Amino acid sequence: MTRIMRDSTTPTDIPLPGLQLVAGYVNGRFAWGPMDWGRFPAEVARVHIDVDGTAYKTAGVLDVETGDATPPEAAVWVTARKRLGARATGCTIYCNRSTINPVHAAMTAAGLAIGRDYTLWVATLDGTEILPTMTGVVAVQARGEAQTGGHYDESIVYDDLWHPAPVPVPGPPWQRTALMAAQRAQVAVGDLVRLLEAHQ
Q1: Residue 185 in this model has a pLDDT that exceeds 90
Q2: Do the domain assignments include residue 142?
Q3: Of 65, 72, 95, 101, which is most buried with the most CB atoms under 10 A?
Q4: pLDDT of amino acid 195
Q5: What's the domain range around 30?
């Protein structure tokens, strides 16, 4: 079963309907803040992108593009992630088709194997959804702005274990929430309880 993921340098440009995963940057000039991430419902899985290799402790994706991390830096990043206990699905390299071979070469030189130690999120941006080989490919960014019609890209996620949707934690019952709010506002709890009971 596939899932839909969207990403953009501007979080507010990402449409919510049909969204199952959202990807955003944790560093660099397009880094997202708490309000940016908070725009998306709890059931939408968050994918954190590191653009230069410095956020290896918090991001599960490294951006390997011109101006961002290089293939040799990607090997260092994956090694650091693995030391933290990350599995291959937590050591994902984002790159385009022309960068796949240099990434593989750098990983092989470092003793790292596709699927075992790292995975790929590959950008095609021309509607191509399936690559000649899908070994270790967790997602394909098939649609760029020309296809989506907006300032965002859309990917198809093929791996169910890659950034699974979080299980929402239920909040306290509404009555308890009201009581807590009343206490903060120094409203007499007895008065509030009587009001709540009258509306049961």
Answers
A1: no
A2: yes
A3: 95
A4: 58
A5: 3-157
